[in-house]
Amino acid sequence: MKKVLKWVGIVFGVLVGLVIVAGIVIYAMGSAKVTQVYDIPKEAITAPTDADSLVRGKGLVEISACTGCHGENLAGQVFIENATLAVLSSSNLTSGQGGIGGVYADADWERAIRHGLRPDGTGLIIMQSQHFNHYSDEDLWDLIAYLKSVPPVDNNLPPRTLGPLGRILLALGAFPVAADLIDHHATHPASAPAGASVERGQYLVEIAVCEDCHGKGLIGRSLDQEQNGSPAGPNLTPSGELIGWSEADFVAAMRNGVKPSGTKLDPERMPWDKLGPNLSEADLHALWLYLQSLPPAPA
Questions:
Q1: Which has the closest alpha carbon to 126: 75, 165, 51, 181?
Q2: CB 57 within 8 A of CB 145
Q3: Dihedral over Cα of 133, 137, 143, 144: its sign
Q4: Closest Cα to residue 241, out of 167, 190, 297, 163?
Q5: Which of 34, 120, 143, 210 registers the highest number of CB atoms within 10 A of its CB?
Q6: Contact 120, 209 (CB under 8 A)
Q7: pLDDT 10s digit of each residue in the chain, 299 long?
Q8: Are 132 and 207 in contact (CB under 8 A)?
Q9: Phi, psi at residue 239, to the nearest 5°?
Q10: Within 10 Å of residue 213's Cβ, how many Cβ atoms?
Q11: CA distance 276 to 115
């Protein structure tokens, strides 16, 4: 009996040791990820300053839901404030105190939005650059132009820190680092697809970050997936939520926030109030064409 207990103790001790070693290794991997520098050259750009570009840029900020994370005044907000886990905030994008607007050069804006990188080359956490990487040059320059023009707001946010648990979760991929999800050497079109086309619809779906709620391929996200970030969105392929909808129903929902059944869309979960006013009739037709072109997802 003593020998059995002895061996049980040895095995238990070995398992505990392995868990500790694994934890140390994963912690070290997370720490390395925090300081990892991505060697992506800065692109020489100059954002426009004309009034038309600022108007288009404001619309793109709404379409891409920048205010959803950075606040209606784009002055940023704290998402997580837990010493063991992390302290994570969305940046103050204005030129006010604590903001990056007066510090970032045009090339810094481009790298942050399109590549998910800080000016020092380290990766941003909880930034949707894997979607914004699809921006055309023309649209991105307009968006940057508008961001540079917003009124300054003083808002000093706590610096990003990751606690022990946060570093472990970062190593395990629980905190998305957009820079790891991007082909940084991909070419970008000078202009976005135009007109009422499937290609235009796909482009809008990308920059509007629709897959963040509706899942890859817009097949939907379940309620248990909602616990890991964005709201659960329904299946938007031809086999899902839009069965029985006409294009007019879709346009009305995007414009007025009301489904054919009379149910109102919650703008906190589905920002129709940001999208609808900034999408033309041709854009909405392009979105409808793209959604109808998707492979039907299994129930």
A1: 181
A2: yes
A3: positive
A4: 297
A5: 143
A6: no
A7: 666 555 555 655 655 555 565 556 665 665 666 688 898 888 888 889 899 999 999 999 999 999 989 999 999 999 888 888 888 899 999 999 999 998 999 999 999 999 999 999 999 988 889 999 999 999 999 999 999 999 999 999 998 888 888 788 777 777 778 899 899 988 999 999 999 999 999 999 999 999 988 999 999 987 665 555 567 789 999 999 999 999 999 999 999 999 999 999 999 889 999 999 999 999 999 999 999 999 998 86
A8: yes
A9: -95, 5
A10: 22
A11: 27
Taking the model in full, what pTM does it have? 0.86
Cβ atoms of 240 and 246 closer than 8 Å: no
Q: Residues near 253 by Cβ (< 8 Å), separated by ≥ 6? A: 259, 260, 265, 272
- Hunting for tokens 């404030």 — which residue is that? 81
CA distances from 64 to 8, 84, 88 (A): 57, 31, 20
